[in-house]
Amino acid sequence: MRFTPEELAAARDRLVPDVAASGLRVLFCGINPGLMTAATGHHFARPGNRFWPALHAAGFTPRRLRPDEQEELLAHGLGITNIVARATARADELSAEEYREGGRLLAEKVARLRPHWLAVAGVTAYRLAFDDKRAAIGPQQRTLGETRIWALPNPSGLNAHWTPQALAEEYGRLRAAAFATEDDG
After folding, report:
1. Residue 18 belongs to what domain range?
2. Could you say which residues of the chain have pLDDT below 50?
3. Of 60, 93, 161, 185, which sees the most CB atoms within 10 A?
């Protein structure tokens, strides 16, 4: 699907509904919707985004899903939300206050939905949203109630120092932790 620059610009500040349900194994959390995501209504919709390939390569899904198949995630115990709801062309358009408020709202959402894991796709966004300057990629000490938190690398194609293989490996570490009891039992 192709959009004109005017159509993408018109998607600015749109909200994209979560793909979520109670009790998920992993609730993935992006920074905020990009304009392509807002224009399509599908998370991680920009063609260069590596979220969907990493999810499949890590074993979360039996095949590579397209963004328009995002609802299928629920059948695998997975969901998607964002720290900040409004769409922008770039994450650097968000203010520190928006990240903090997004973190507060995300904590409320997690308390309501109670996923086993919250996986924030972007360690810098996690640091800003939860005022945790020392956070690194991987599992965090902090929890939100019973929900564990994992900071993932941002899957954007702009985050090129994380190769597709390295992304898949990190997502795979999360998958192993999130499904450990199910796989063992």
Report:
1. 5-184
2. 183-185
3. 60
